[in-house]
């Protein structure tokens, strides 16, 4: 068999290489997850053996990337760790086997050979997983969609084992990179073009800006004119690939019924509708809910959020629920000063002041989004 062995410990790497080569197998090695990923694309091994704790990209991240890339999804990954508890809890979904160090090499070889035999006979499909797309939208501009999308994505990304990407579909005025204080990199238009032209050869990672938390951000096109070429097929391609690669894809969908917005709202697994206590916004929300219904967006996917960009004594959450005929499970506290400071510092409120009531509300939103309905 052709093996790829990734471990940052040089002596273990050498020992494994020597052992397997003496038994007639071909072995490539890598010092960390990133190097392993490059080797893997070049050599297409039968199986990847990989340490969990490695610099740059951990074994978990590597396994997830392998599993979620169409070009590599069928290559089995075996993780090994001296801390089996953590490897077990989070590796179960995407690793084909999990072993504890120290490794017994004779047993390891037998396990690998029999695993490859079972896979070849079709008895053991490699695990497949799909992430969740959550669209955040509203019927009117200025209601806090981008603010909520940024905080939601960040709150989701604070979970150590989750990979999260925030996608800015406000193609003309995208604010996400600014709200998260990251320099924009390649935009939505460029990634879509690469996905269409290069297919499996496209490396989405090159297009993301990275936040300190690990959150990835795909910004809007640099030139709004480029947004005009983005159509339904492109957005479908984009969301399918993002979902294959990441646990959560949070999309900022500004008001309007253009192709990119409608495609996202109809394909998302969750749709957060932001509602503010203001009469014209409420009337428009009725229209938006009607349209979503006519597009057969499952009611269960909808999650209405009452956001107090303006504080209102009259239009309370209960009254708005009555007017819309729809339950609103969550409300976000009003605080002009805090949200203003968040925008000017590029630090979303969940990061700026995690104990503030508005941050707790936004963290609760992340919990609701991550819970199956
Ligand atoms: N709960 C809140 N309390 C106070 N201010 C808020 C709250 N939520 C959002 N804001 C403020 O409301 C303004 C609009 O927010 P944001 O830009 O996120 O909305 P948007 O719907 O994305 O707007 P646009 O249509 O321009 O894209 C911002 O100044 C933001 O700081
Ligand atoms: Mg916005």
Task: Based on the model shown, name its key terms.
373 residues; alpha/beta; Rossmann fold; 2 domains; eight-stranded mixed sheet; five-stranded parallel sheet; 15 helices; 13 strands; 43% helix; binds adenosine-5'-triphosphate; binds magnesium ion
3D architecture notes:
This protein has two domains: 2-120, Rossmann fold (3-Layer(aba) Sandwich); 132-370, Rossmann fold, CATH 3.40.50. With 373 residues, it is α/β, with parallel strands linked by helices. The chain has helices spanning 10-22, 33-43, 59-68, 84-91, 105-120, 145-157, 176-179, 188-198, 232-245, 259-267, 279-294, 317-324, 336-345, 349-352, 357-370, and strands at residues 2-6, 26-30, 47-51, 77-81, 97-100, 132-138, 164-168, 209-210, 216-218, 248-252, 270-275, 302-307, 330-332. The chain has an eight-stranded mixed β-sheet, with helices on both faces. The longest helix has 16 residues, at 105-120. The structure holds adenosine-5'-triphosphate and magnesium ion. Magnesium ion is lined by residues 145-146, 170, 175, 254.
